[in-house]
Amino acid sequence: MTWDQASAQCRSLGGHLVVVTSEEEQTYVHLFTSSHYDDSMKPVVCFWMDGKDEESENHWYWDWTGQPLEYTNWYPTEPSNTGDKENCLGTHKGGIWNDYPCYYKCHAICEKE
């Protein structure tokens, strides 16, 4: 599902896409994605998180709170904004973050406060 679809799904369940603000939370998300991933999920291998930079390029923020990302776990060459279209935050089973086009198809990771 797209980032917007994933966000809407999480909100319909009373939550939001996952917000990661610490290494401890990142470890949990990594363990979650690793344990919930299997080959039947291919070709979709990414998971949406709540981060975006649509309003101002390379100024990443959590959509749920509007707060800037302070803790990050980007892949070393990310965020790359390839083609000037990668404005939504995702992760994969390895736990590393990547910027993806918001129309890309990923799974959702929802959380409730």
From TrEMBL:
Biological source species: Anadara kagoshimensis
Keyword Glycoprotein applies: no
Keywords: Disulfide bond, Lectin
Molecular function as annotated in GO: carbohydrate binding
Residues forming coiled coils: none
Domain of life: Eukaryota
Protein name, UniProt field: C-type lectin 2
Sequence ranges assigned to domain C-type lectin in this UniProt record: 1-111
